[in-house]
# Entry
Amino acid sequence: MMSEKIDLRRIARELNISVSTVSRALRDSHEISVETKQKVFALAHQLNYVPNPYASSLRRQKSKTIGVILPELPNNFFTHVVNGIEYVARQKDYHVLIYITHEQASQEKALIRHLQSGRVDGVLASVCAQTNDIEHFLGLIQLGIPLVFFDRVYEEIGVPTVTTNDYEASFAATEHLIQQGCKHILHVCLPLHLSISRKRLEGFCAAMKKYGLLVDSHSWLVADDMESFYRALETRLIGNCAPDGIFASVEKLAITVYHICQKRGIRIPDQLKVLAFSNLETAALLAPPLTTVTQPAFEMGKKAAEILFRKIEKRREIFEEQHYVIPSALIARASTLGRLSYPKFSEEHVAMNAEK
Amino acid sequence: MMSEKIDLRRIARELNISVSTVSRALRDSHEISVETKQKVFALAHQLNYVPNPYASSLRRQKSKTIGVILPELPNNFFTHVVNGIEYVARQKDYHVLIYITHEQASQEKALIRHLQSGRVDGVLASVCAQTNDIEHFLGLIQLGIPLVFFDRVYEEIGVPTVTTNDYEASFAATEHLIQQGCKHILHVCLPLHLSISRKRLEGFCAAMKKYGLLVDSHSWLVADDMESFYRALETRLIGNCAPDGIFASVEKLAITVYHICQKRGIRIPDQLKVLAFSNLETAALLAPPLTTVTQPAFEMGKKAAEILFRKIEKRREIFEEQHYVIPSALIARASTLGRLSYPKFSEEHVAMNAEK
DNA sequence: TTGTAAGCGTTATCAT
DNA sequence: ATGATAACGCTTACAA
# Structure
């Protein structure tokens, strides 16, 4: 009942030819006669032969596998990035090993260290929020294992990066809030050692200053963990000096905002306008529809993978220090629009240009 | 600048001991002296040694890797399932290879065939909607590679499955709609060769019959592809015999319903009540909040992985034909509730019992 | 407690 | 055009 595993030796024996001939025939080598190839193909197919990837990887010193390191998986941005990566990997006939750090530096470190084993030919990573220690990545680099960062990057260490135009998109989003009448905008974000947090905060601050609005340390709130963030934000929203606008640096913070508003009866957009970096598929269906800075997630994953494969295929090239930027789109919906109340609202789609 | 790769030989040479001693020391074998172990550990650590997984896998004939086959990734249900799988895999020190079929049978076939190579020690799969051909899975089974299905399963072929209580949850959800006054409910679902589609449809039909409501071939609408589904549903919703309730078998169909209602100004729940199997994190924030049958996604992934590892660890055991069922929860929200209009609504949480 | 050597399944080199 | 053989890096009998 249980069929045995077929290897090259078996095929060779049955056809009375050598293992190396079989190997070459299966790889369609030009130095093998057409007849032999046909015989080999036929038998291999009949026996349902599938080459052992570990033997092959060991011998050839390449794994046909790339590793993807993510902070979390149930996240619309990251799943679309992975789709983009997978799209390219499939074309290259590569396998995708996914590792999730759950935002924990210890896991990120352990994973990266493990990947120095040669298990993968290259690594795509979006770093975790908990730390800014980069030692472990340097280990990978020193071993010559290609690495590309996407979204959450370290720009200092000479590794290609793929990001969206965080600063500019954030600037434009902030301008949008201001133009809708907000004067006291609260920016909520992840810890500031993350590149995305810093750039988006910078874009926010720059726009505020441009319009002469006050920016101080109360203008932003960092979410170290979601529980304490929830409480801090709730306090802030029901207090005396509540903001009239919230700019959420990442999607899940915006969802928290909505939950608090629902619970506390705060009316969006009348009392509070809300805007977020988000790839939520249901953004247009929320109460009220959420204005988003929508990131080109699929394209970012695709681009990052393409760069990685270029590095894998010809290591000697010097395109370190390449920083690709793919622009996000601001999609204005009811959560930031004037006095319009749900469900009457207009959608405005503003594409922004790439920088650098 | 580029550091070289370290192998056992290198460590052995430097310590003037044999490769096998190093190997045993690193695996903390009891037949190696404490001193030697310490020396080896120290040097291994200093040189940043990481064992080559391909060499090890080839020799030991196991990969320490499991494969996960999914129809799609940007899907709240599947991402949480993967989290559950990953939770278990991490404990077992296993790697997770993710493959996405994009609902295409050809890809599913090719993937499964490839996995007969020994690349993985076991496979977790949720089958694609496009086919009900199971040949390829039989190939895996014959090679003795452990397989567990989750969510979208084939029950006929003696493979353990992990599902939610699709029939019962669907029955209860339909009852809920009926109790809220619906008389003409339309069930929208994926193709019926999928186990989940069939069971949920059966639960729906049974409940309808129980309450003496008409069930015929117009009572359900199958979504073969999303474009034609959108058009068909839109036609149906604005036509003469529009339903007064919609029961969506999977989340993305419910989202389509919401989009159509928004576009056509159909008021939920006044004109149309809507309910769906869904793990949408924003269900409570939609306009109006969506009543869901929430599946225990994480637990399903965890359970499926646990069963898989039991199979991997002791192949000889006969627990084929195990079918685990983990119940879903009906969470009633405004989209199905009486004449209440948003945002005043109450949440009702109804847990259902497991079956079988 | 440690060393020697074979072998996992494939590919690459060198013959023929 | 094909075959013999070594090697990839590790594990594991079997010896010592």
Chain B has three domains: 8-51, 63-162+297-325, 166-295+328-351. Residues 8-51 of chain B form one domain. Residues 17-21, 24, 31-33, 36, 55, 57-61, 118 of chain B lie near DNA strand C (CB under 10 Å from a C1').
